[in-house]
C-alpha cells in the first residue's frame, strides 16, 4: 500500500528484530587472518599493514573509523598480530577487539610510525603490503625510513573480503530484510504535502525500532529530483502524480543494506510506466546473467542490452543508464568487485552485489530499482524480493 497511514501508526507496528544473525566468531576471524598471511606471502611481501576502517573490522572486529591518529594492525606469518594505537585508547581497544593481539601504543607527543618501523625491523620484513586505505602521509613516512619496500595490498584485501562466508551472508540478509520492512512502512506514511525530510526522519526512526542504530544513509526524492541518481538539495513537498524514489539502508555488525524503491504516488503518465517496466526488465536481465565463471562486466552488458533494445543509451548516454549496474557490498557499502564494463573479475559463489541499472530521463524523472543478490553455484539469489510494480511494492518477504 502507498499512503493511507501515519508515521506514528507505522512506528507502533515495529518492534526489535527477533531473528537476529549471530556475530562473526573469533575462529572465523582467525581464519581470515591466516588467509591474509598466505595471500601476503603470495604477493611477495613479508607483512601486511591494515588501517582502521572496514578492513581492520573484518579481521579483528574493531569497529573504529579512520582518524588522524594512526590505528593499524601489522600482520606477519607465524606471529601474533601487532596493533599500533594511541596509549589512551588501550582500554577501549581491548573492549572492542574480537581476537588476541599484541598492543604497542604511542603517547600523543610520540611518532606512531616509529612503532611500525621498529616492528618491521624485528620481524626482518623487507617488503610491506600497504592497505590502500592508509593515508598517504603515513605510507610515505614508512617508505622514507628505508627499512622496507612497499607494495599495494589491494589484491590481498580484495580476495579476503570479496567472497562472503555463510555468517556474513546471514548478517547481510538481516540488514536487508530490516530495510525492506522500513521501505514498505515509509511508502504507507506518504500523503500530499509531506516533505522529504519528514520521510528521512521516519526511516531513521523505523530502522531504530527494528534494532539497527538508525539509517546508515537515506535519500528521499520526489518528482523531477528522481532524475538525479543521488538527488537534489532542498526539501520538497510531495504532490499527487509524482514519482517517489527512496534509497536507504542500515548496518548489522557493520554489514550493510542498500535498497531503492521507485513508485508512483497517484496517477503518472504512461511513458513513466513504460520506463519503469524497462527498468524492471533490465534488473532481471542482470540477475539472470549471474553465473560462476562469468565476469562482472558481463552482468553490466546484460542490463544495458535491455535498454539499447528499448532505444535507450547506448553506453552512458541519456535517456539511459548513467552509472554502473551494481557494486559489491559488505562491510563497505561500495566495495570490489563492480558490475561495470572493464571489471573482468570472475564471479564466484559468495560474492554479493547491488543490482540497480537506473534509467534517467533528464529533466523529468528517474527510476532506480535496487535489490541485492549473491552468487551461488547455480546462479544469483536475491536477498529480498524485488518490487512488484510501479504502484505495488509487494510484501516485504525474504527472497526464496
TrEMBL record:
Domain Creatinase N-terminal: start-end pairs: 32-163
This protein's UniProt keywords: Hydrolase, Metal-binding, Metalloprotease, Protease
Domain Peptidase M24: from-to ranges: 171-377
Pfam families: Creatinase_N, Peptidase_M24
ATP-binding as UniProt keyword: no
Taxon lineage: Bacteria, Pseudomonadati, Pseudomonadota, Alphaproteobacteria, Sphingomonadales
Record's protein name: Xaa-Pro peptidase family protein
Protein family per UniProt: Belongs to the peptidase M24B family.
Source organism of the structure: Novosphingobium pituita
SUPFAM superfamilies: Creatinase/aminopeptidase (SSF55920), Creatinase/prolidase N-terminal domain (SSF53092)
UniProt keyword annotation of Hydrolase present: yes
InterPro entries assigned: Creatin/AminoP/Spt16_N, Creatinase/aminopeptidase-like, Creatinase_N, Pept_M24, Peptidase_M24B, Peptidase_M24B_aminopep-P_CS
